[in-house]
Amino acid sequence: MNIWIMKLRHLNSLQFQKSLLQRPYPLFKSFTLSSQHFQTSAKSTQDSKSYPFLSLTQEPNLIPVSVPYYFKLLSKCNATKTPTPGMQIHSHIIKFGSTKDPKSRNLLINLYAKCKLFGYARKLIDESPEPDLVSWSALISGYAQNGFGKEAIFAFHEMHLLGIKCNEFTFPSVLKACSFRKDLELGRQVHGVVVVTGFESDEYVANSLVVMYAKCGEFGDSRRLFEDIPERSVISWNALFSCYVQSDYCGEAVELFHEMISSGIRPNEFSLSSMINACTGLEDSGQGRKIHGFLIKLGYDSDPFSKNALVDMYAKVGNIEDAIVVFEEIAKPDIVSWNAVIAGCILHENHYRALELFGQMRRSGTHPNMFTLSSALKACSGTGLKELGKQLHCNLIKLNVGSDPFVDVGLIDMYAKNDLINDARMVFNLMPEKDLIAWNAVISGHSHNGEDMEALSLFPLMYKEGVGFNQTTLSTVLKSISSLQTNNVCKQVHALSVKSGFVSDIYVVNSLIDAYGKCGLLEEATRIFRECLIVDMVAFTSMITAYAQSGQGEEALKLYLEMLDRGIEPDPYVCSSILNACASLSAFEQGKQVHVHILKFGFMSDIFAGNSLVNMYAKCGSIDDADSVFSKIPKRGIVSWSAMIGGLAQHGHGKEALRVFNQMLKYGVPPNQITLVSVLCACNHAGLVTEAKKYFGSMRELFGFVPMQEHYACMIDLLGRAGRLDEAMELVNTMPSQADASVWGALLGAARTHKNVDLGQRAAEMLFTLEPEKSGTHVLLANIYASVGMWDNVAKVRRLMKDCNVKKEPGISWIEVKDKIHTFIVGDKSHARSKEIYAKLDELSDRLNKAGYVPMVEFELHDVERSEKEKLLYHHSEKLAVAFGLIATPPGAPIRVKKNLRGSSPTSEGKEYIGFDLLSYAL
Fold this sequence. Notes:
Layout: H1 2-8, H2 13-21, H3 42-50, H4 67-80, H5 83-95, H6 102-114, H7 118-127, H8 133-145, H9 149-161, H10 170-181, H11 184-197, H12 203-215, H13 219-228, H14 234-246, H15 250-262, H16 269-282, H17 285-298, H18 304-317, H19 320-328, H20 335-347, H21 351-363, H22 370-383, H23 386-399, H24 405-417, H25 421-430, H26 436-448, H27 452-464, H28 471-484, H29 487-500, H30 506-518, H31 522-531, H32 537-549, H33 553-565, H34 572-585, H35 588-600, H36 607-619, H37 623-632, H38 638-650, H39 654-666, H40 673-686, H41 689-697, H42 699-703, H43 709-721, H44 725-733, H45 741-753, H46 757-770, H47 775-787, H48 791-803, E1 812-817, E2 820-825, H49 834-850, H50 866-874, H51 877-888, E3 897-899, H52 916-922
Antiparallel strand pairs: 1-2, 1-3
Helix pairs in contact: 1-11, 2-11, 4-5, 4-6, 6-7, 6-8, 7-8, 8-9, 8-10, 9-10, 10-11, 10-12, 11-12, 12-13, 12-14, 14-15, 14-16, 15-16, 16-17, 16-18, 17-18, 18-19, 18-20, 19-20, 20-21, 20-22, 21-22, 22-23, 22-24, 24-25, 24-26, 25-26, 26-27, 26-28, 27-28, 28-29, 28-30, 29-30, 30-31, 30-32, ...
C-alpha cells in the first residue's frame, strides 16, 4: 500500500480543485419551492391507500406532529422509493415550519435524489444554512445510482470547495461516477484523496477503487489493489468478478472464482450469477452446469437473478429445452426472464415456440418492453407470419411509444424478410436517427429481395451521412456485388476493407473470396484465400464453389482434399459444391467418395446435398444411381426434379425424361424455365419434334413463362437436326427480341450438319458480331466449307482468325481411373502409357476397318488424302482417352470420357459423351 501512497500523495487538494474547475459541468436551473408544489390529488389519494401511515397528512384540519414522527414516515418513503407521499410530508413540514430539522431535510434530499427529482434535492441543499456531509453524500449517491456521473462529480467538486471532507460513504459514490464516465484521471485523483484521508483500508472504498480501475481498463492496477485488501470478503471477490465478466475476460473470472473457493470463501447468489454469465461468454455449457449444481447445493436455486442468468446461459450455449425447464421453475417470471427464454428460442430458430411464449407472457399480465417486441418481430420474420408482424406494428403505433431503434430495426427486418421491402424502407425513412444497425438492416433487406443495385447505392450514401460501416455492412454489400458480378466495385470494396482494417475479419474475408469467385476473378480469390491466416469451412466452400463454377474442377477436388487433411469436417454446402465439380469432370469415383461422406455425416436429408448427388450421378451417366438418390430425397422440389429430367435428357433417354416430367406435374410441382429447357432437350434427343412444338407453343398458357433465348435455341437445334432448316430460320425471324449467340450457334450447328453454306455464313456473320473472340464460330464455318470442298474459303477463315488474333481452343478430353483424372489433347504423347495407348488405337482401327466401319472425314479441316484424314481422326483427344480407358480399366467396366469443347447448342450441355462410334464398337 506504501507504493500507492507514494504514487498518489502528490495529488494534493489544490491540484484536485484546479482540475475540477476546468471541467464544464452545467448547473441546474434555479427554481422556487413552496407548498404549492405539493398539492394533493387523486394520485396521492391512491398512494394513501397503499401507505395508510400517511393518512394524517390529508386530513382537512391538519395538526403538527412531532419531528421524530416525520423522521419515521420519511424513512419508510426512502425504503420504498415513493416520492408522492414524501412530497406530502414535505408540504406538511413546510406548513408547520419544521424545515430546520437536519435529519428530516437529509431524508428528503435522499428521497428526491433516489427518485431522480434532483431539482428538489438540490434546492433543499441550496436553502440549507449549513449543508452537511450527509446532505451532499445523499445527492452524490442519487446522481451516481441513476447514471448521472457528470452531475455527481460536479456535486463532489462543490462539496470539496466548501471544505466538507468525504467519508467512507461518499467515496464509493464518487468512484462509481468515475467508473460510469470512465474518467481514469479523476479517479486517480480521488484515489489520492482516499489515501491522504486514510480511507483506503475501508472495504467498501477499496472495493469501489478496484471496480473503478477495472472499468477504466486498468486491470493490472485493479488486481494489485484487490490483492492489497487485508481481509477480502465475498463482496470484494464479487466486485472483481463482475468487472472481468463485463469486460469479456470470462476465462479470468472463472479462474478467480476457483481461487476464491480454494481460499475458503463461500460464494453467494451474486457470485454464482456472475459465473453463469461468464460461462455464457465462454460458451461453456459444461462449466455452466457445474455452477448450476453449486446453486442447488448452496440453496440459491430460487434466486431470481441466478434463475434469469441460467435461462440466458442455457438458451445461448446449451439446449433450449433446458432453458425452458429452468424458466418454468421460476415462480413469478419478470420481464428479464421472459426476454431471455423468448430470445433463446429465436436463437435456436424455434420461432413458433417463441411466439407461443410471447402470447403466454401477454396473458400473464407482464407487459413487453422494446426488447421483447424486437424478439417477437424476429420470430415473425423467421416464420413468415407477416400479418402478425403488421399487428405488432399497429399496436406499437397505437401505444404511441415513439421511435425505438431496436424495434425499428426489427420492423425493417420483418418486412424485408417477408418480401415487403417498400414497407421496410418506409420504416427506415421515418426513423428520426438512423444508426449503423438500421442502415445494415435496410441494405440487407434490399439484398435479400434481389434489389442488389439499390443495396449498393445505399452504401455510399450511408458513408456520406457519416454513419460509418462495419464487417456486417461489407459482407452484405459484397453479397450484392456477387449477384451483380461488378468486378470494379468488388475491387473498390476490397480496397476499402484493407484501408479500414476489416480485411482481417473472417466474415469479410469469406465474402471477398465469394465475391471475387462469382465475378470470375479467381486469381484474386485464391490470393485472399492463401493469405488468410485462419481459413474456416465457409472459406473452403466459397473457394471450391468458385473453382467448380469456373470449370476448374480439378483444383476444386485438390482443395477439398486439403480441407480434409486439415481436419475440417465437411458440411452439406461444401459437399454440394464439390459434387458439382465432380459432375463437371465426370469424376464418378470421387463423386461416390463424397457420397460416402454425405452418408457418414448424416447429410442425406439435406436438400442441397441430395440434389447435387442426383446431378452428379446424372452428369456422369449413372442414371440408376441418380434415380436411387432421387427416390430417397424426402421433399423433392423443382431442383430435384430438374436435375433428374436434365440427366435423362442429356444421356438420350428422352421419353423417360418426359415421363418423369409428367410425373412431376401430377405431384403438383410447377416447372421452372430450366426444367422446360431440359424437356425440350429430351424431345431433341428423342427426335420428338411434334411434342417439342407442343410444349414450346403452350409454355405461356400452361406454365406462365415467356420463352427465353435458351428455349428458342433448343427448338432451333431440334428443327435443324430434323432437317427443317426453313422452319428454324422462320422461328429466328419471328422471335420477339433479337436472337443471342446461343440461338445463332444452334443455327450454325444445323447448317454444319446439313452442309448448308448460305445458312452457315449468315449465322457465322451474326456470331462474329456477338462473340468475336470465340474460336468455335470460325471452326464450325471452316467445317462447313471443308465438307463441300471449299478449301480456299477454309484458308480465308484461318487467315481471319490469325488477323483477329483468335486462337482455336484445343480439344481436351479427360477420364477418371482409380480416383485420378487423366487429361489428353489431340496427338498427345505425354502420357506415361502413351505407347500402349497408340498400340490400342491401331488395334481398334484394324478391327473397325474389318467390321466395315467408315469414319466421317468430311469435316476434317486438312486438305489431305482420305487415309491421312482417318489417321488424324483416330488421334483426337477423345479417342486417346477411350483407348486409355480400355487398357486401364477391367473388362466390362463403364468408360466415362468428357470433353471441354462446347457443342453447337445448349442441348449438348457443353460436355457431352463423345467418341460414340469407336466406344460402342470397342465395348
